[in-house]
Please model this.
Amino acid sequence: MPRIEETPLPGVGLRLDFTADDGNRIGVVHHRSGRKELFVCTSDDPDAAIVSLNLSDEDSHALSEALGGSTVIANLNDLQQRIEGLAIDWLSVDAGTPYAGRTIGEARIRTRTGVSVVAVIRGDQPHPAPGPDFQIEASDTLVVVGTPEGISSVDEILTVG
Amino acid sequence: MDHGARLLVELGAVVLGLGILARVASRLAISPIPLYLLAGLALGEGGLAPVVTSEEFIEVGAELGVIFLLLMLGLEYSAGELVAGVRAVAPAGVVDFALNFTPGFLTGLILGWGVVPALFLGGVTYISSTGVIAKLLDDHGWTGNRETPVVLSILVFEDLAMAVLLPTLAVLTVGGSTGGAVLTVGLAVGAMAAAIAFAYRQGDRFGDLVFHRSDEVSLLTVFGVTLLVSGLAEGVNISAAVGAFLVGIALSGEAVARADSLLSPLRDLFAAVFFVFFGLSTDPGEIPGVLLVAVLLGVVTAATKLVVGRWAARRSGVGPAGQLRAGLTLVARGEFSIIIAGLAVGVSGAEELPALAAAYVLLMAVMGPLAAKIADPGRRSRAVVV
Model:
């Protein structure tokens, strides 16, 4: 996978882009307002966007669906196929958890167990690739990847701290 | 008609007129600023249809317009972006100042205005229009371009420079001792550093405190805080505009994302009033006398912005076509030039400045976007899907 470069655009938002196999630069500008702008540049003038499309939230979901799902899921499938001894589990967060309202970073899950939280499912809404500042709530479901031992320690951490 | 009724009718006619002009500007895909200025010129003393009753209201509205423009400008940037932006383009930012402030300053001196009014004219020619340029980048679909971060960083640099320039000019208009002037400018720079440091540490918390899930609470709180700080800043001669800018910088965090939808309608309304007021207080009779100077200054400062943009883009490894786009994009002047010229009203020796600034901005706010079109020939490849 080509490396995605991040460039801050002061006052506008963030630009994520990469150079595709055929030399064209492809990227997305994430505007502050939440609007996403998809652009493509050719190798004749790699600086200029020759196509730029404005996408609403729904549009971008539809587009990523059309392209074959998010990279998180794609990477997961990849991992599952290649590495043995790796488990994926769905852990529900109980009402009595000491981490309700606190962040994933504060629970120090990865540091303590080596397990990664790849998504949080809240209600019907999945939140893929949550950052360390993502707040855990009671009755969330955490999708975690790691060793089976690590995952059972995470379950323990979430229940008793 | 009694006074109250006259006021409403006159104000209604003015605002409705602005609405029509904004519609025309949107149809022509140009910035509405020049049209607002023309409307102000037509409505002022010596114009076609002078407004009398609502002038006082318009004056207060104009002051709010400046405050909203600067508050929203500050809100657009996070502290991190300000610091990173300045670091990224510091050399280009300095060259930009040297090349674009100097023509205005020298012109003022040549016209025999004296040093202080000449400094104001330098400010007018220095600062590019963030508003016009943001729209231009969007219209041409250039936001993802590789030269765009360079352009945006230069704008950030200019905005910070303006936050130092405004209080400096404000102090110079008041006069007084050199010691007092140095103190005020020091205070302004200190206040800005404090606001940026505050935004780093407490900005998110301040944002959460000010913004509330109710739009009503958020609006009243932000507006109140901003007016208060602006008033205090004006009181110590840092200028209300800089006060509002500092509030905008100090507020950060996620809650601020909502500020845009909440405050932009107010900014649009009062900023329009501000441009009209500037036109109102300018005597249209003086414009023909300064037109030639404005055109010459326009040509020179378009060229100097072009040089700065191309150079800064080349330093960032952008190709020739992108360098040209960066240069042409920066040509547009607008709201900030008018804000600076507005400060000079009443400064002795600067009697010609409003007319010259109005003519200059009329020219540059139209010419900037036209210049940018040169670098986007018919958007030839827009339809070609890769």
